[in-house]
Structures are given as structure tokens and as C-alpha cells.
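Subject: Sanity check before I submit

Could someone independently write out the C-alpha cells for this chain? I want to compare against mine line by line before I put it in a report. The sequence has 74 residues.
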Amino acid sequence: MFLFCGYRGRGPWASKNADELVEEAMNKFDPLTATAKQKGNLGEMAAKKNLTENPALKKSGDNLKRIGKKSPTA
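---
Independent answer below. Compare away.
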């Protein structure tokens, strides 16, 4: 499986935004064939999604965001 690195040039992904690319990569993820880097990228994407979209965190009034380098987009 190939996880997309975020290139926004030509190709079928050119019209998709970063959130769509992340969702697509997470849905296509196969842990049996993924490399260690792909597994790590998926973990980073899932952690970012949890920080920004977790309803329990939002309900408690916490507005969390990732600090440091950006997480991979795919």
C-alpha cells in the first residue's frame, strides 16, 4: 500500500483537500501490508484527529491543537 505524501500537483488527488486525503488514507490502511513508516503516519493522523474532533474534549471546553511539526496528510 502506498500512502500519499501530500503532493498537490497532477493526478486524481489534485482536487482533494488535506482532510479528504487523510480520510482516504485511513480507510485504505491495511496493517498486514503496511510498512513501519505507514503505520507511524497512521498513528500520527489518528492522534491529530482525536485532538481536534473528540466530542468529549470539545464538551469539556478544551480546545486542543497539535504543537510541533505538522502531522502527515497521508
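---
OP: Matches mine. For the report I'm noting this point. The two ends are 12 Å apart (CA to CA).
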